[in-house]
Design a protein that fits this description.
This protein is about 80% helix and about 0% strand. It is an all-alpha fold. Helix 1 packs antiparallel against helix 2. About 0% of the residues are buried.
């Protein structure tokens, strides 16, 4: 072999070493990127679980507030309806009519204050609950299509089952 062949062989060997080093470096970078992608995917999955939990807490808060509101309205309606019976009987009798009317008006006034107070406390607790949860005020998204933002539970892969 002459000098040119040796020079070309050394050049070829140098190129092979450089390519090998480049491939090794790319392999390390690929592994590092792969690790970062897995870490980011895990963080994203955790954030999605936290968001789902947030939605569930907001739904629970809204359910409780609505339940108390409707329960109070139902009890008030039943209470007022039942109370009309004895007050009607008192007011039907000429001897107890005036007293019965005063007692009914007093009863109705006290009932309105009590049930109004329950509604007021429920609304205040609802406002406080939404504030603590960082949720939108009640009715803030009225008229909006919520189907695009349905609360979707996630499976172990972070995928929605809907």
């Amino acid at each position: 072999m002459d000098l040119i062949e040796y020079g070309l062989a050394i050049l070829a060997l140098t190129l092979v070493v450089l390519v090998y080093q480049g491939v090794a470096k790319l392999s390390q970078q690929t592994q590092a990127l792969s690790l970062r992608l897995r870490e980011d995917a895990a963080r994203l999955l955790e954030l999605r679980y936290q968001q789902t939990l947030q939605w569930q807490m907001e739904d629970a808060q809204e359910f409780v507030e609505t339940f108390v509101e409707s329960g109070t309205a139902t009890v008030r309606g039943l209470h007022m309806g039942i109370s009309r019976i004895p007050f009607g009987m008192l007011e039907a009798n000429a001897m107890t009519r005036d007293t019965g009317k005063v007692v009914r008006e007093t009863h109705d006034l006290i009932s309105d204050v009590v049930y109004g107070s329950i509604r007021g406390v429920n609304k205040s607790v609802g406002i406080l609950g939404r504030s603590v949860l960082g949720a939108k005020p009640k009715g803030a998204d009225k008229g909006l299509d919520k189907s695009a933002n349905k609360h979707r539970p996630l499976d172990e892969d972070g995928e929605s089952d809907r």
